[in-house]
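*Target chain*
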Amino acid sequence: MRFFSYFNKFLQSHPSSSKLLVLSSIRGFCLLLAVYSGGGLVVYADLPSDKEKPSLALEQEETRKKRVLVLGTGWAGISFLKDLDISSYDVQVVSPRNYFAFTPLLPSVTCGTVEARSIVEPVRNIVKKRSGEVKFWEAECLKVDAVNKKVICRSYVNENLPGKNEFSLEYDYLVVAVGAQVNTFNTPGVAENCYFLKEVEDAQSIRRAVIDCFEKAVLPELTEEERRINLHFVIVGGGPTGVEFAAELHDFVHEDLVKIYPSVKDLVAISLIQSGDHILNTYDERISSFAEQKFQRDGIEVLTGHRVLSVSDRLIDVKAKSTGQNVSIPHGMVVWSTGVGTRPVVKDFMEQIGQGNRKVLATDEWLRVKGCDDVYGLGDCTTVDQKKIMEDISAIFKAADKDNSGTLTIEEFKDVIEDVTIRYPQVELYLQNNHLSDITDLLKGADGNEREEVDIEEFKLALANVDKQTKSLPATAQVAAQQGAYLARCFNTREKCIAEPEGPRKFRSGGRHEFRPFRYRHLGQFAPLGGEQAAAELPGDWVSVGHSTQWLWYSIYASKQVSWRTRYLVVGDWTRRFVFGRDSSRI
């Protein structure tokens, strides 16, 4: 202390040294000395030694929030963000569009039944309502570096503005929900001469093109044949999107456009081309039949069993499967709606992780991307690879055979029934389709009588046909939304479920899975058919068609809007259309 007293007197006698910082390190300790005029203040700071630094870094790493990076703001991505406990994670979102679009109403946007801005909600409006910060960047993911847990992105916002457009982001958990792109099946001329209906911009382009066809058709000095060609609208694809667009276009033409283009009202034609034997072939056959009959009454030509060979700016070449004859059909515009394909960034990622031979990114039943740790896949860009029960049949038998007798009794089987039905959902589907009331009915003999016990071969035979019920999930908004909500729940309960697993038994390795696997619950599907009529397929094998179903469609689609703002706008657009008709302005 005598040293510090002497040092203090020295500083007081030298005003120019009123502020001095001395840093000395002795055996890993640091002495920080700060002295102000009028007196001295000594502060000791105990800095960590080199041996302590790694442990401190590890402690900081453990306390840091895990970084969750979400790619995409579609149904899956937004559903995940809305349900995720943001306060527990450092959440980052990357998407080339800064809004969420209610895609089931895109066909309505093509004809002005609903305005484009009525079905979109800014992403920042959605995430700002959450308790926590979500970082959002409007950019496209170019590459996923799974080894280094990093993604490379590029922004396409006005490139004339200063600053770099490319950047990289690191993650602890990656959620791939980028959706899919239109599948042209490499058909010549499709990309250059067809309109698609996948994004809001596509719907707006179709709306302008329809008006252009009418404006061109009424120009003077055109022959009647030229007018007919300009007003021939061809839709390729008899799925829900193609059928709904055909119905919307028919209503737009006959309820609104013929009133303002009366000279060409008899020249309009709409054709729907489907490669399968029926349109809406994923629906109940009663709905498919009703839709075909209604389109026939409305004058919409339905060409089933026809495959498109090529598309030019004036002709679409098709081949009839029944006769093998090639036909060239003149058109004014073609809308292509035949399914979806994998985006390039996902294809590149699949090559990295050993899925290059697959068409779609595969996940397990917990939505974890196969072959890559801490990466999850949601929505149209993925498929759930459901495990076959026959792959684990021996392990299931061994787990149930507690007395190691080599045979399985009904009571022993009942002990694993719940885990089996949770782990392998195809078992439940098999029971429903075969009208079996209980899974133990599978163990009955060929004569229908119950057996007291079965051996391994009889057990395999009883479950041999179960895996035939395994089906891929459809690429719909309903599936994507349920997957997003499921994954958010897994993230929210991660710590709890690690300590207390809630999933089914692991038959091979023992123990239990941390979470219950994803189970899709089908809530039904609609198909608006025009003329204020719709068809619905709802749970319980209930099929409804007609005007009342259209009003049910209105109520459900209004309730499913992502915000009260869009709900109000959509209902307002429907009301405006009833009162004033659709707007035919080319904007």
